[in-house]
Structures are given as C-alpha cells and as structure tokens.
Specification:
Two copies of one chain form a homodimer.
Chain A: H1 9-27, E1 32-33, H2 35-42, H3 46-54, E2 60-61, E3 65-67, H4 68-79, E4 85-90, H5 94-101, H6 104-108, E5 110-117, E6 126-127, E7 130-134, H7 138-145, E8 149-152, H8 156-168, E9 173-176, E10 189-192, H9 195-209
Parallel strand pairs in A: 4-5, 4-8, 5-7, 8-9, 9-10
Antiparallel strand pairs in A: 1-3, 2-3, 6-7
Helix pairs in contact in A: 1-4, 2-3
Chain A binds a DNA duplex through α3 and β2.
Subcellular location (chains A, B): Cytoplasm
Organism (chains A, B): Anaerotignum propionicum DSM 1682
InterPro entries (chains A, B): CoA-bd, NAD(P)-bd_dom_sf, Rex_DNA-bd_C_dom, Tscrpt_rep_Rex, WH-like_DNA-bd_sf, WH_DNA-bd_sf
DNA sequence: TAGATTGTTAATCGATTAACAATC
DNA sequence: TAGATTGTTAATCGATTAACAATC
C-alpha cells in the first residue's frame, strides 16, 4: 500500500461515494454491475469509474462487469474501514456534542472514546455514555489510549495550539471543524470541514444563478441590510 | 455577474479562504499585501492568487500589491455576503440543532428562521428562539417567508423526497448534510456536506501514511474487530 | 527615476474522457 | 462462438505554475 504509485486526491475523494453506491446496490440485492450502469446512477463517466478502480487493481471482469459484493468489500479495505478507529472530540460545544450523539459513526467503527473541554460546567458530564474530561488530562489520555483521530470543534483562537499539542502526543489525524488552517507536521493528516466556507460557496452559486442581470430566473429577494461582521468563529 | 466568463469551481472553493485570510489581516491592522506575501501565509503560489483574483477584476496595483480592506470588501461582494439570507433547517436532530445553536451564522447574515421536523415531541419547541414546526407547514412557510436556503439534516431515506418538494416550492439552494445525493432541477443549487465521506478520506490517508509496509512510521494500532455495518444514515 | 509587483500570456502539469485491443 | 465489457493507452480538457512586459 506504500511503495505503489501515488493515488490522486480527486480519486480518494470519490472512494466513499463509490462505497456508498455499492452498499446501496447490495441492499437492493443487485449482484453485478457494469461501469456503464453505475455511471448512469452516479452521473459520472464509465471511463472515470474504470480508471479510478484500476488505481487499486482489476476488480472487474470483461464481458461481465463488477461483482457488487466483492467490489464493495475491496473498497472497504482500501478505505481502511475493516478496523476500528479510536477518536476523541476536543471542544464540547454544539458541533462536538452533535458528533458524539451521531450513533452511525460507532456502527461503522469510528469510536468516540472521550470529549475534552475547558468548561468546568461540562467537565465530568457524560454525553451518550462518553465522558467529558478536562483538557489538562488530554496528554495522558492520548498516550494511554492509542487515539487515532482528534475531532477539533473548538474556537479558532484555540485550535492551532491544541493541534500542535495533539500532533506532539501522537495523534495521527485531525478532523478539523475549527475555522482555521492548522499547521502540523507532515506525518499528521488533516481533513478540514469548514462549514462556513461550504455555505459561502453555496451562496456564491445562488447569487450567480439568480443574479440581478438575469431576467430568466425568479427575483432575488435580497435585503440590503448589512450584517454585523463576526470576528471569531 | 451573469454574462461574463464562467468561473471554475476550484476558484470558487478558494474564495472563502481568501476572504478569511484578508479578514485576519484586517484584524491585525495590515493595510496592504502583495500576492507574494499572501502566498507565503496561505501556502499557495502567488501566481495562483493573481490568477484567481483576476477572474473578478484587477484589484491590485503594480508596485504596491493589494489594499487589504478594499480586497476584503470586494470578495465579500463577490461571495454575496453583503446581504441577508433566510434559511430553514429541515430535520431537528443533533446536527440540525447544533447548526441552529451556532451563533456565528447569524452574525454573518445567515439567518435560520425556522426548523421543521416530524417528531411531535419537538414540534412547538424553541431552539435559541427558533421555533420547531411540523413539516406539514413547510410549503406554506416557504411561500410566505422567501426562504433562500434549506439546510437538510434528515435521515437519507427522507432527504430525496423533501429536497424535491423544497425545489418545487422555490428554495434556491440546499445545504445538504443528509448522506445521499439529491436529484433537483438545475436551477436549484446543492452543496453537500457529507461528514461520513469526509472522515473516510481522512482515514484512507492515515492508513496510507501509517501502513504496515512502512517501517518508518509509528506502528498502526489497528484492531481486527469487524464493526457492525450500518445501513441507514 | 528605479524597484516592486501586478495582470496576462505561455508552458506545464494533472485529471478526465475517448477509443479500442484484450478477454471473459 | 459472439457479445459485452473490462483494463489501458492515447487524446483532450482544465487547472496550476512560470515568465515577463506593463505600469504604478
């Protein structure tokens, strides 16, 4: 898995989507599928599907297509979903709590072992059986519990320092919901979920589609009121 | 904004990040910046910055660089952040509630006006002043309140039908947290936040970096226990 | 003016699509 | 065998980087 040719980020980002569609097919008791059929379902070209999959091996068979169960399982292994992952949530606010309460993660093997926060009012509490600890206990906890992933859901002012500490203590990956870019050693992986950025790109596209110049579309119902600018999120 | 040459998705996705960095510079009372300086901060090439910005106009000045406040404001206008947006949350579960409680959206002008759910136990309740309504009331509400964006945070089995209805009723954009691809008319914009997919790509990268073959890295502490496969999220 | 830095064209790189021989 | 469909090479398309004349 290591010495082979590097897989492009575009391909990696599509893998979970393939996995999802194959899981759905499996649910519908469909046993085989061709790249052409799958391409129609997924709205991508058959060529791209074959190219993507062939990065990892020849999973299909000429004249037949792909065996759904087999391919589903292969992608599962490729994504590393055939093992458990220990995770912690750093920052017990809205999003942190929502993620702890999201039971589907556990079913997939993504196990949240603990939450860390600085707020004495929530330290000691339990969220769906997961205890909230003082951040002061984080170094010791990580070293004793082989934590793979830290989920960062804290204010951006604190995220950078915390991420540095976590990297030092051996966390391999950060799932970063804090609205800031982290600076970590290259052997620590970061995946950003910048919700505000995501929403902004949606708004851009809405404005582009429904812009004033275009008489073809419904009238934009924009209000010219200037919102208060936010400085810390 | 409409008849001009189409902006590439890659550029659009970078706009919020430019906006964020310029906001930070403004905070630090930095009045001007060159593409070279900004490139060092953002870890992208100066060439890319100049190319990106020039899609929208010549905001800089030779020999000087860019005026931070001016450029910040121009990007704000490009992204359409100089107006308010009315949004509703469809699905009052963990994530839906967390988003309602996230006060920074409102400060930016992203206003959540109402939550809709089918659960009688939460209908009538109020989350940070935002009322939870019965989904039966959604059509009427949307038609009377010029809703721009629907935030979908419901189980995937229900999301597709709801998205269809919302499109019919005139919602312009969907911010989709449901783990399914929506099929909507082309004048309705969809931005997906597939949290499970995002986490999976992180895990892929962790496995690639810390794979068994590699003796250079820490030992992977994987457990060979097979998690229960989840069918509905 | 001289130095700095943009805006923009050209070159390179990477990702997607097309085509087709191999083969089940 | 004949038809279908893969795996893979080649062609195209798009995005990034480099280079530099224009100009503040």
């Amino acid at each position: 898995m290591d010495s082979e040719k590097r897989i492009s980020p575009a391909v990696i980002n599509r893998l979970p989507r393939y996995y999802r569609y194959l899981g759905d097919l499996l649910e519908s008791d469909i046993t085989r599928i061709s790249s052409k059929e799958l391409s129609a379902k997924m709205n991508i070209t058959a060529s791209q599907i074959r190219q993507d999959l062939n990065n990892f091996g020849g999973f299909g068979q000429q004249g037949y297509g792909y065996n759904v169960e087999y391919l589903h399982n292969e992608i599962k292994k490729i994504l590393g979903l055939d093992r458990l992952y220990n995770m912690i949530v750093v920052g017990g606010g809205n999003i942190g709590q929502a993620l702890v309460n999201y039971t589907n993660f556990e079913k997939r093997g993504f196990v949240i072992k603990a939450v860390f926060d600085i707020n004495p009012r929530i330290i000691g509490m339990t969220i769906r059986g997961v205890e909230v600890h003082d951040v002061d206990k984080m170094e010791e906890y990580i070293k004793n519990n082989s934590i793979d992933v830290a989920i960062l859901t804290l204010p951006r002012s604190k995220a950078v320092k915390v991420a540095n500490d976590l990297a030092k203590w051996g966390v391999k990956g950060m799932w970063n919901f804090s609205h800031v870019d982290l600076q970590v050693p290259e052997d620590v992986l970061v995946e950003n979920v910048h919700l505000t950025d995501s929403l902004m790109t949606l708004l851009y596209k809405i404005n582009e589609m429904y812009s004033e110049e275009s008489e073809l579309h419904h009238l934009a119902n924009g209000l010219p009121i200037k919102p208060i600018v936010d400085l810390e999120d």
